[in-house]
Amino acid sequence: MFTGIITDVGEIVSLTPTAQGQLHRLRIACRYDRATIADGASIACNGVCLTVVASGIEAGRTWFDVDAAAETLGMTTAKHWTAGTRLNLERALKIGDELGGHIVAGHADGIATIVRRDDLPDMARFELSTTRELARFIAAKGSVTLDGVSLTVNTVDDTAFSVLIIPHTLDVTTLRGWRQGSEVNIEVDLMARYAARLAEMK
Question: Per the confidence metrics, is the pTM higher than 0.85?
Answer without folding.
Answer: yes
